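Record type: ASSEMBLY
Status: queued
Input:
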Amino acid sequence: MLHLVGLGLADETDITVRGLEIVKRAERVYLEAYTAILLVDKAKLEEFYGRPVIEADRELVETGSDDILAGADKSDIVFLVVGDPFGATTHTDLVLRARELGIQSNVVPNASIMSGIGCTGLQLYNFGQTVSMVFFMDNWKPSSYYDRVRENVQIGLHTLVLLDIKVKEQSIENMARGRRIYEPPRYMTVAQCAQQMLETEEERKEGVFGPDSLAVGAARVGAANQKLVSGTLQELTTVEMGEPLHSLVLLGRRTHDLERDYIREYAVNKDTFDASYAKAYGASL
Amino acid sequence: MLHLVGLGLADETDITVRGLEIVKRAERVYLEAYTAILLVDKAKLEEFYGRPVIEADRELVETGSDDILAGADKSDIVFLVVGDPFGATTHTDLVLRARELGIQSNVVPNASIMSGIGCTGLQLYNFGQTVSMVFFMDNWKPSSYYDRVRENVQIGLHTLVLLDIKVKEQSIENMARGRRIYEPPRYMTVAQCAQQMLETEEERKEGVFGPDSLAVGAARVGAANQKLVSGTLQELTTVEMGEPLHSLVLLGRRTHDLERDYIREYAVNKDTFDASYAKAYGASL
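Status: finished
Output:
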């Protein structure tokens, strides 16, 4: 059987008791290591589980899924996923491939950033669709996310923005020369995300959001050193949130008073928060 | 310290290793028992934890929160929540009360139905706002949810519908006479939800959805006997999903081919599924 086991958000102890039991008795254990990261490294997981863990990069999962699934008809193979197996990044492709091979799948759910973001004090009921923000390059600044944010903004809902990570990326030169040399990992920060959002608005000029729009920056959700900051997008462009992973929530107009009170507590600046809030937010608007 | 510990979705083994450690060493352990249920009872939890668990009903949480928090400035008090502490039902009020009393809070995240619903094969990115469906009564059939579903439908997004549960409810007569006699618990089924949705559409006649609209019924998400069914709302009015808890997802027009393939596998009737799908769904529409 193929077991997709969610690891949760922070460290090795965020696995569920059920998940841990399966990991301990499985034949092989893979760790999906290219769309999200835990705040501890693989060695820490191996020590905690008392067994080796095989790192699965994008290449292995996308082109070598049959290697992962080898023998799963007779024994238990575990595929560990940071967060929830069907959370932000879905692994339906692996399940579908297993199904084709006649291999059963079992999913062990866990916390995902898509529910964990409730730690901000914003109600999950008030979120619209989630969007992703990729690292802009000089000649490639995709703004399709902007259209989806607009849909949420028009209804008055919050938008969770998930931030890009680059792990095991090759430079164009190394890729062209077929050299397996990888760039250091990069994790987008709340400040970079806010900056890019304002860049898109500058370019599109459709007024979906602006420097005074309120947002929440969240770092290391679910960890002991979790950090939350609220402020205007302009303020967030210079905020220092520390280690990855970061996420951002653009506040919707329909914000409830209870939500406002909760996020105001961790505002960068309560005066600018109140001023921006009074202009454009509140359930009655 | 006040610890809000998520229990996940199915049984006693869905708690995280970190959560279990806190439960074992805490001074008192409460279980929030009125907005969601695990698929095992309190005795099973107590046996698994090796300690007593105090059931916290709505009354205790809403009016007796200071009793729950008593001593939390000096020792560890745990408040167990089915799913994630900040999931579908938020407990920000308890955290805010603790903050007023100068008591620190710690949250241990876990799987929530709001991310666990990814098990349907539908991408969480394609969901709009979540709505709740309450039990209709003869003279009370609230349809405010219908307006929110319309917002999602207009954009083409899926809608997760969370279904009402009634635990420790009094009959009007018993309430009037001040008798603490409670009705047996009731859990809304997928069939009841689909029926009520069609009733609302009959009444409002705004064409937000209809008997041919496609939806997914999900029962016991995350459990070994999890059950998924897809079909038209009309078909789902007679579907038998078994034990609680149930949820429903109304399919959005923007469904991706991969999502369609995944949910078609568990269609009540593949022919009616294909016919309905061809009429109104698909990413290109």
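Annotation: The mean pLDDT of chain B is 93.
Annotation: Chain B touches chain A through 56 residues (CB under 8 Å).
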